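Sequence and fold
=================
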Amino acid sequence: MKFEELNLHENLLKAICDLNFEKMTPIQEKAIPLALEGKDVMGIAQTGTGKTISFLVPIIHKILTNDEDFTSTLILAPTRELVLQIFEETKRLLKYTNKKVVNIIGGAEHQEQVKRIQEGANIIVATPGRLIDHMKSKAINLNKIRYLVLDEADRMFDMGFIKDISYVMRKCSVDKQVMLYSATLSYYVMRIAYDYLKDPVEVKVESESIVTENIEQILYHLASEEKLPYLVNLILNNKEEGLGIIFTNYKVMVTEIVDTLRKFGIPTIGLSSMLEQKKRIKFLKEFRQGSYTYMVATDVASRGLDIENIKTVYNFDLPQDVENYVHRVGRTARAGRTGKSISFCSEKDYVELEKIEKFLGKKIPVGEIKEEFLKYPQGDFTFISPVELSKKNLIHSGRVEKKFSKKEKFKKDRSKKPKILDEAMQYLQKADEFFELNQNEDKKEKQKTFKQGKKQEKQRKKQKLKLNESKGYDKSKRNLFDINDTTQVPARKPSLWERFKSFFGF
């Protein structure tokens, strides 16, 4: 089924055409018509099936058709990255309209978010925690919310947002349309659906296998110390074009992997929860744009991120949660494309491997180990940062060379230099000479003053010494407290060596 068959608002349909969306995915084909009818929808589908479009299209169509000028839509997502992704997708669909969307996430400036909310927005995309902060400070009122979306609902409940979701749902208008999307049908998903959805229609899209057949899966059995050199060699010998994500279970390993790959000239960026929000957004943007071809990440990036042209996913460590394996490899082969998943299994990962294969219902194909890949490659490797790369591109394009050539030409042609510049240079030269002369005079004056001071100090000491002698002070006295002491100072006891010499008559 095509989007043109849905009789959507012309400005929305125009934006959809710009995104090259023609044929709907199974979840979109089932969910969009029901949502357009105003029914509550509970969508169950794996990642990469087009769930975001399935709830954005009917909502934006209704906002444009009804010409709603107030905040009518609230979309909740578990992570900042997913919120930003939905935000960007919404902006693209609102391209030919005057409607606005605002994102509310933790780590961003609080006052700036309040300002954007007060300026007016038709759609709010938020994480539960920061949204509640604004609700309690009365910056946001949800009384007029007509469309509420819970995206990746099972993930939000896993992260402990069940109470936050219930709080938000109670604060919204009773007369609202709710759309809930989840990868799994867990207990909490069922509970929320029962408590807050009105006669929901369940839309379920099941694939024949948990991991799509478009993903080629390979497993390498390696020792822990062999993982990093093998990863470097695999990447350097990868001839396929496209981006790659490397997943690890540990935050500290993100930096180590990034630094190692950069040593071998591989443009890599790291992403983990240790980074500030602004840096995470910046790095994701640069990765999407292709400034870096590889991203090393923890499971913070394993769900919800829809980055085009991810060709290969590397599991440097096998995930401890079996479902995270599906979410990790689901970053590739999206929207019908093909992709590859490469996993490393060391002596520490055998328990996880057994769980993952049991969950998948089949064995992951094992790849043949290449002995030459177990050691780091030899040779000269240089990493070029995006800033240096942009400068290099400018020079290559001739724009920087043109500037340099003008400079050189100006230096060679002295006749073109204005006379006033010569006069200014002469003035500065005289000023430098004057300053140097004064500095030398000051130096001589300071040396003279220092010598006079030392001379006066010596004279004062001599006068004091003469005064003490005239009063009969004994020089052997230690301090002023001994001046009036007339007792004889006891003689020093001879040392053992002195007594030895006197005994033998030395």
Observations:
- The two ends are 122 Å apart (CA to CA).
